[in-house]
Design goal:
Distance between the termini: 54 Å
Order of helices and strands: HEEEHEEEEEEE
Strand content: 35-45%
Strand order of the largest sheet: 1-2-3-5-8-7
Shape: globular
Oligomer: single chain
Helix content: 10-25%
Largest sheet: 6 strands, mixed
Structural class: alpha+beta
Number of strands: 10
Length: 137
C-alpha cells in the first residue's frame, strides 16, 4: 500500500509542475501601418487584449472597440498623466487616466455607441465616436 501512495504523490507533483510551466504566454503583433497593436497575455485566470491608437488618427472618426479589449491612447509617456477624457455615456465605456508608467485608455463596459472627448496637456480637444462591439475582434 505504501508504494501505491508514493507513486500517486509523484504523479500529482509531476502534473502540478507541468501545469505551472504552461500557465502563461504572451505575444505582440503590430499591423502594417503601425497605428494599431494587439497584445495578448494569457494565464490560467486572466487574458488582456489591447488596441493602440494615436489621438491624431482617431479625431472625428468612428473607432470600433470589441468589449474584450481596451483602447490605449498612444501619447508621449512623459505627458501621459496630463491627458484628460470624458465619455458621453459612462455605461458604455470609461476613460482611465494615464500615469507615469501607463498611457491613458478607454475601457469598454457594455456594447453600444457613445462619444469620447480627449484633451491634451496643451488643451487640444480630440473627439471621436466609439462603438463597443461584442467579442475580441
Amino acid at each position: 500500500m505504501m508504494k501505491k501512495t508514493s507513486i500517486s504523490l509523484c504523479t500529482i507533483a509531476l502534473a502540478t509542475a507541468l501545469l505551472a510551466g504552461c500557465s502563461s504566454a504572451s505575444t505582440e503583433t503590430t499591423d502594417s501601418s503601425g497605428s494599431a497593436a494587439t497584445t495578448q497575455s494569457a494565464s490560467a485566470s486572466t487574458q488582456m487584449l489591447t488596441i493602440e491608437k494615436d489621438p491624431a488618427t482617431i479625431s472625428d472618426a468612428l473607432v470600433t472597440l470589441p468589449i474584450k479589449r481596451v483602447l490605449i491612447i498612444k501619447v508621449d509617456q512623459a505627458a501621459a498623466s496630463n491627458w484628460t477624457g470624458t465619455v458621453e455615456d459612462t455605461s458604455i465605456a470609461e476613460f482611465v487616466a494615464g500615469t507615469d508608467s501607463d498611457a491613458p485608455m478607454i475601457k469598454p463596459l457594455a456594447e453600444g455607441d457613445t462619444t469620447v472627448t480627449l484633451t491634451s496637456p496643451e488643451g487640444e480637444t480630440i473627439t471621436f465616436d466609439l462603438s463597443v462591439t461584442p467579442g475580441a475582434r
